């Protein structure tokens, strides 16, 4: 973790900042450095999720990952920097339906007498700041988010986002119970193999930037800016898809995607 901590400090991290400001800085840098990507799912990389695996894949090779990779790495960095942080597990709700049970990893934070969550692994729907439990909403280029005590079928705390109808919609729910590190590999196996997994069907790369969001699959690239403008580029063939990947992804990620396309 020392290497990643040094990189954060070189990027402007200041230890004297208030805890929420420091955590928000780390979340913004994680969004910049570690895209949400599922290439390992599609290529069948079944390596257990360990700190060594995360450092090799994401720091050394400059790859991204899914929630059970990005957020555990975030947890380790926060702990290294002195934060009171633990691993949590939530169940995602999409289009009114609950997804696979407790397969979303997140970080539980306790700062200055207040409970927060930190999440750098929710695709391109990132708040880019810790969310306080029953506190004020947080606005990012990806939307408006809040954390509420709310009874659901999947827990007593819900992360919510304002939808296009300006209504609060549950994105995921959980209980404030620390999750053992060993559960990460269980999450990974479920996401890799379960028929209802949303991530073992097609390639996805997603990021939240300071000015908007982006997602790429094998058919199109979609950008949405903070001012509401949107652009969708349809790939005419594999070559145009790979050209976009090389332009927007790290060399290591682009190389893995090319290998996947060669094998598929």
Automatic annotation (TrEMBL):
Give the matching SUPFAM superfamilies: Cysteine proteinases
Which PANTHER family does the entry link to?
ARYLAMINE N-ACETYLTRANSFERASE 4-RELATED, N-HYDROXYARYLAMINE O-ACETYLTRANSFERASE
Domain of life of the native organism: Bacteria
Give a single Pfam family match.
Acetyltransf_2
What protein am I looking at? Arylamine N-acetyltransferase
**GO terms assigned for molecular function:** acetyltransferase activity
Q: Report the sequence similarity comment from the record.
A: Belongs to the arylamine N-acetyltransferase family.
Per the UniProt entry, what species is this protein from, by scientific name? Answer: Pseudobacillus wudalianchiensis
């Amino acid at each position: 973790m020392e290497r990643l901590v040094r990189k954060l400090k070189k990027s402007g991290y200041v230890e004297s900042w208030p805890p929420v400001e420091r955590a928000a800085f780390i979340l913004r840098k994680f969004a910049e450095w570690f895209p949400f990507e599922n290439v390992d799912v599609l290529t069948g990389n079944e390596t257990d999720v360990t700190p060594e695996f995360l450092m090799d894949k994401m720091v050394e090779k400059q790859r991204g990952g899914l929630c059970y990779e990005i957020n555990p790495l975030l947890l380790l960095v926060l702990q290294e920097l002195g934060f009171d942080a633990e691993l949590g597990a939530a169940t995602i709700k999409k289009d009114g339906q609950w997804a696979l049970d407790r397969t979303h990893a997140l970080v539980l934070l306790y700062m200055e007498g207040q409970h927060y969550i930190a999440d750098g692994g929710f695709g391109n729907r990132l708040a880019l700041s810790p969310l306080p439990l029953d506190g004020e909403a947080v606005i990012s280029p990806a939307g408006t988010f809040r954390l509420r005590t709310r009874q659901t079928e999947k827990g007593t705390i819900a992360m919510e986002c304002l939808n296009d109808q300006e209504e609060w919609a549950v994105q995921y729910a959980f209980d404030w119970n620390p999750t053992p590190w060993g559960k990460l590999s269980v999450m990974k196996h479920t996401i890799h193999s379960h028929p209802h997994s949303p991530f073992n069907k097609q390639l996805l790369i997603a990021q939240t930037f300071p000015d908007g969001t982006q997602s790429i699959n094998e058919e199109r690239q979609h950008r949405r800016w903070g001012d509401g403008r949107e652009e969708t580029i349809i790939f005419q063939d594999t070559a145009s898809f790979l050209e976009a990947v090389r332009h927007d992804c790290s060399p290591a990620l682009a190389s893995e995607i090319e290998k996947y396309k060669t094998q598929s």
